[in-house]
Amino acid sequence: MKKRSYAALALAASIGFSFTGEAFAKNLSDLQQRQQQIQSQKSGLESTITEKEQQISELQKKQDSVTAEIRQLDGEITKIESQTRIKEKEITETEAEINELHREIEELKTRIAERTVVLEERARSIQQSGGSASYIDVLLGAESFSDFINRATAVTALVNADKEILQDQENDKKQLEAKEQKVTTQLASLNEMLADLKKMQQDLSEKRLAKNKVMKGLVADEHEAHEQRLSLEEEKSLLSSQEASIKQAIKAEQERIAEQKRLAEEAKKKAEQAAAARALAKAKSSSPAKEPASSGPVRSDNAPADAGGLFMRPAQGTFTSGFGMRDLGDHKGVDIANSVSVPIVAAADGVVSRSYYSDTYGNAIFISHSINGQVYTTVYAHLSERLVNGGSVSKGETIGYMGNTGRSYGQHLHFEIHKGPWTIGKENAVNPAAYINF
Ligand SMILES: [Zn+2]
Question: Which of 8, 106, 374, 408 is deepest in the core (most CB within 10 A)?
């Protein structure tokens, strides 16, 4: 700036040679005035820019602190939700145990009551025949030695039976007492668990409220937020981890095909052998060889069932938002919501390429698939908890639980299918409805 003003002065001075002294002075002061004007405009502009930059950096700072707060709350909520699920399972188990104990107690009580009737009858008959003396009468009435032996054996059996019945009665009474004691303890621990659960649920609703409040502090609105913009860092690591998982998925499919072929051949061979055996034995009826029983993954409660098709639905719930739907931005997946945290399952056999916490997607899992030689990618976002961190998963396997983590408004699963690899522009995203028998 200073250099320029000197240059202007020098220019003015060189022009000034052709003017009179007065005119020169006037022109010079004009020039200086204009120079000053420009200078002040420029500095005004500069201070505006600085001000705006400050505002932007403040907003950025605010956004960053909100993001950090959400991350923290998500972590806490995930932990409590996980503990809640464990507690609920414990409660269900304890309730089942208590029910079983009640059933056993009822059984014992019936047995004791029935035996009491028998014992009372015995007591009455012994009394009527003169008490324990009746045994001696029986023995003394023997006509011969062998008769005596017979009678003695019979009396011993009778005495033993009485003893046994009394022993049984006493054992059952002891067991009854023990079981009643156990029910009391179990009920006490159940009440404790229920109290714990209530406390957790209170904590949870507090944290959820806190998250909702923090979400309101986000600069972006709901729609913009739902666009799920990922950071450059995330995009880079997604792309790099994807390469390996795609290779693994293709290899796994080839192995599956080979295994299926082997099983089919084995089944065919077995069927042929069975047919030959039947022909040999001239069996009356022939039944077709049974397919080898498929050993599917163990499913937890509320998990969706495989309705066939290339992919299965990843979670139970209602569709709250479809593919491409959104007033602002393009929705690259479908949303499935549920009021309870239901299991999220892998939509097809595949290899986990990424399982991580994203500031936008929350707890997210990316899976690479190879189906009939075609590579697909599925994305599961806003999970409460992630149960897989890498490696192979099978269709229907629980990979996590539905949640509300990241830039999410209400508990739901955001689910995407990409025909091909996942790309930054999401060009390969397809409508999941076209691939799943919902
Ligand atoms: Zn969505």
Answer: 408
